Predict the 3D structure of the following.
Amino acid sequence: MPARILYVGHSTVLIDMDGVRLLTDPLLRPRVVHLRRVVKVDTILLREIDSVLISHLHLDHLDIPSLERLGRNIPLVVPPGAGGFLRRKGFRSITELGVGEELRIGALVVRGTPAVHDSRRLLLRPRAEPMGHVILGTRSVYFAGDTDVFEGMTALGPIDIALVPIWGWGPSLGPGHMGPPEAAEAARMLQASVAIPIHWGTYFPLQAALHGRPSFIDLPAEEFRTQMQALAPKIEVRILRPGQETMV
């Protein structure tokens, strides 16, 4: 039975597999402070979500207004240290899952994996351990969250579907992120069968579009494809734009 992968945009992916619907790092708003969304979200596609996986506390991955759209009773799987923060925000069904720990959700098993990224939400508190997830069912799916390449990635493979971040929302990347070359190296280390780039092509600062569509909306995915052909040509690359889906 194939898995359905819907790239909602940025780090938000709907993973529909073995009768379970998981949503990662929901960021659903058309506008986030100075950022604008390229394509609006069809929220009809996001009904009947069984659980939400949160990778870390940064504002573009743990977005309270987006979670509120899904309802305060939506089951949340969050990194250790994030539970109290979300309970104070009124969410009622929260499970903290650490690196190496596993949680069964219906027919699937979700395993916490390491991530190399900043643990803070803002400059001070709260803090929570950033992480990724491996989802195990008929297919194995790796959701990286935000991370740089790390040595232990090899131990996570082989993976059927690797959801690897390749960019962000602006013209440059900070530490703890992967660009197209690093994402290609991650897919190679994971021994992925299919690599799907995420965390690209979704948001842009309004001022960046004053002279037309910014190149960083489109170019990272093609650069990722080029890097994959050079580094791991046997891995199938499927590029999805926000709102597009594929069966694997």
